[in-house]
Design goal:
CATH architecture of one domain: Sandwich
Pfam families: CBM_48
Shape: elongated
Keywords: Glycosidase, Hydrolase
GO molecular function: amylo-alpha-1,6-glucosidase activity
Family: Belongs to the glycosyl hydrolase 13 family.
Structural class: alpha/beta
Radius of gyration: 27 Å
CATH superfamily of one domain: Immunoglobulins
Largest sheet: 8 strands, parallel, barrel
Protein name: Glycogen debranching enzyme GlgX
CATH class of one domain: Mainly Beta
Length: about 700
């Protein structure tokens, strides 16, 4: 049996770390005794008690143990759910700092920390045969590529699932489909580069496991919002692991990031630090519950046997506790410093900002992020809500350095294009970066605080948004009771697939209107992967459990016209700084925008509040008080005249008073893309956006600038 030693004279990091002599093991636990369990390739277990403890960190050194070693922990201590204590040495636990995880969860009574017949007593069933193993990982040999470093104002996000994007791509070799290596393949990268996005926002890639109820139904947690390892890339997305190389997911992930960086693409991770896969009191004991239940989870003060649940999953991570905060911050630094990622989108981020139970923008987590020399410099995007509390919807309340998924943008834009009354003023506010939410002078936030989106993974795709009034989630085997009923969608007259040419034309126009609004608006646009070419989930608005053709991209049915329109829109945005303003328009810059009625007169308060008003024109002057580049050069631009027609009939627009005639040409028409290049302004077709431009030289001469 391998001897266990303590190495004096050096600090002990958490997690297993390998050096040429062996491996140092360390784990944080409030238990009475921690046992390291080593497994050979046949599954035989050797147990070694960790001999030393500093605070709540137990540690020791095992000579001769190197990369590839499978291991876990067992923790002795009191089992007293009434006091929030759930130690049970019969349960093999994952290392919360494991860099790689191998194996699957096999559900059964062995996974429960408590006795089924007597929940106040510990289970005596050993769980080792039913849980994954942590793996010791050596240093990665992948050379780091230089990072692209786009500012938020320059960023165009593309939300995508590693597996779904490549699972059926005909130009990606079959062994690489659905993997990190597949996403790094030229065929995948070329699509992203040609489309023009600047960053991929990957659905969760932390190691995750499916819930038991999904396994019982023959389904799985496809989206991955059920994390069990915050340092480990998900093994199921690794071609190397498929090929029989346990732990190969680490280098494969790094190689993917480097390939994307080399192509000029940033990588943002969707991370789930609000809960874990262990669920509520009746859930499995896999890791955190058995190590230190009171440290890692929020417990009900009145009854610590119960979990506070602001996530809808049965538990919520305790971001008040130093051990949990350290784990989160260590994970974030690891993914930036060693795995190369460029930012994070925080799922149900309101839970992370709960100080003593209530949300606060001054919570400890936000303070740690703000002062961290690594994490404070990357992209930080919050999903600004959680569930079940009076303060669960915190849109606009995150700290100044954060951006937020703007649910108000989604709701307003969806309602506007399905012709709801009284939305013109709100629509204009969303178009201009939502200053009502993010423009308070005392906070110094910018339009880039708003991450604008029309569709995301959770809900309808864009094609389904214009094809279905109702969700069709029968494949989820929940009686169509799951998923949101508030879709704000419109099927254009027919539910689901149709051969009616008029309906198909209308649906195509609606999609183009949504895309034009998204790319025209100030803030950070986020495109749901596949919306650029008409991907459908056949009306399923909650495809979290569908690891199949419902969720995967169908590369055989690409709408080439829609793809070309989307690509041109992204190029238009990236080519013109007036669509990427880094400041809200106040003072002299307010002249940058002038709003007009279709008749050409200035909009009045009465016009804005008219519940039946659905059309407006906006003049964007590209030469008045422009932003400046990094070298201080003014970012002068063309003038643009944008016509927005929310009516279901064509609307003629007059050239506004004071706007010189001539030299205007159409650069985008969501109703009829064939009009691009023609003279403008022109009538705007039903439910459409028309963008006209005037050459910069003309704008410069008019303002005396050269």
């Amino acid at each position: 049996m391998t001897s266990l030693q303590v190495l004096p004279g050096s600090p002990t990091p958490l997690g297993a770390t390998s050096d040429p002599r062996g491996t140092n093991f360390a784990v944080s636990s409030g238990g009475d005794r921690v046992t390291l369990c080593l497994f050979d390739r046949h599954g035989s277990e050797s147990r070694l008690e960790l001999p030393d403890r500093d605070g709540d960190v137990w540690h020791g050194f095992v000579p001769g143990v190197h990369a590839g070693q499978a291991y876990g922990y067992r923790v002795d201590g009191p089992f007293d759910p009434g006091r929030g204590l759930r130690y049970n040495p019969a349960k093999l636990l994952l290392d919360p700092y494991a860099r790689a995880i191998a194996g699957d969860v096999r559900y059964g009574p062995e996974l429960l920390g408590h006795d089924i017949e007597n929940p106040s007593a510990p289970s005596q069933l050993d769980s080792a045969a039913c849980v994954p193993r942590s793996l010791v990982i050596g240093d990665t040999s992948v050379p780091a590529a230089s990072r692209p470093h786009y500012s938020l104002a320059e960023t165009v996000l593309y939300e995508v699932h590693v597996r779904g994007f490549t699972a059926t791509h005909p130009d990606i070799p079959l062994p690489l489909r659905g993997t990190y290596a597949g996403l790094a393949h030229d065929a995948a990268v070329d699509h992203l580069v040609d489309l023009g996005v600047t960053a991929v926002e990957l659905l969760p890639v932390h190691h995750h496991v499916p819930e038991q109820f999904l396994v019982d139904r023959g389904l799985t947690n496809y989206w991955g919002y059920n994390t069990v390892g915050f340092f480990a890339p998900h093994a199921g997305y690794s071609a190397a692991v498929r090929a029989g190389l346990p732990g190969g997911q680490v280098e494969e992930f790094c190689a993917m990031v480097n390939r994307l960086h080399g192509a000029g693409l940033e990588v943002v991770l969707d991370v789930v630090f609000n809960h874990t896969a262990e669920g509520g009191a009746g859930g499995p004991t896999l890791c955190h519950r058995g190590l230190d239940n009171r440290a890692y989870y929020r417990l009900d003060p009145a009854d610590p046997s119960r979990y506070v649940d602001t996530t809808g999953t049965g538990n919520a991570l305790n971001a008040d506790h130093p051990a949990t905060l350290q784990m989160i911050m260590d994970s974030l630094r690891y993914w930036v410093s060693e795995m190369g990622v460029d930012g994070f989108r925080f799922d149900l981020a309101t839970t992370l900002g709960r100080q003593g139970g209530d949300f606060s923008p001054f919570a400890a987590f936000f303070a740690l992020v703000a002062q961290d020399p690594v994490i404070s410099r990357v992209k930080l995007i919050a999903e600004p809500w959680d569930v079940g509390r009076f303060d669960s919807y915190e849109l606009g309340r995150f700290p100044p350095q954060w951006s937020e998924w703007n649910g108000r943008f989604r709701d307003t834009v969806r309602d506007f294009w399905r012709s709801h009354d009284g939305l013109l003023g709100d629509f204009a506010s969303r178009l201009c970066g939502s200053a009502d939410l993010y423009g308070r002078r005392d906070e110094g936030r910018r339009p880039s605080a708003s991450v604008n989106f029309v569709t995301v993974h959770d809900g309808f795709t864009l094609a389904d948004l214009v094809s279905y009034n109702d969700k069709h989630n029968d494949a989820n085997l929940e009686g169509n009771n799951d998923g949101s009923n508030d879709n704000r969608s419109w099927n254009c007259g027919v539910e689901g697939p149709t051969a009616d040419p008029d309906v198909l034309v209308l649906r195509a126009r609606q999609q183009r209107a949504f895309l034009a609004t998204l790319m025209l608006s100030a803030g950070v646009p986020m495109l749901l992967g596949g919306d650029e070419f008409g991907r459908t989930q056949h009306g399923n608005n909650n495809a979290y459990c569908q690891d199949n053709e419902i969720s995967w991209f169908d590369w055989s049915t690409i709408d080439r016209e829609l793809l070309g329109f989307t690509t041109d829109l992204i190029a238009l945005r990236r080519g013109h700084p007036v669509f990427r303003r880094r400041r809200f328009l106040t003072g002299p810059a307010a002249r940058d925008l002038r709003w007009f009625t279709p008749s050409g007169s200035d909009m009045t308060d009465r016009d804005w509040t008219d519940p039946l008003a659905r059309s407006v024109a906006v003049l964007i002057d590209g030469s008045v008080d422009p932003d400046c580049g990094e070298d201080g050069t003014p970012l002068l631009d063309d003038d643009f005249l944008v016509l927005i027609n929310g009516w279901w009939e064509t609307m003629p627009f007059a050239l506004p008073a004071g706007v010189p005639a001539g030299d205007w040409r159409v650069v985008c028409d969501s109703f009829d893309p064939t009009r691009v290049g023609g003279a403008g302004p022109v009538p705007a077709g039903p439910r459409s956006v028309v963008i006209c431009t005037c050459a910069a030289e003309r704008a410069s001469s008019r303002t005396g600038m050269s």
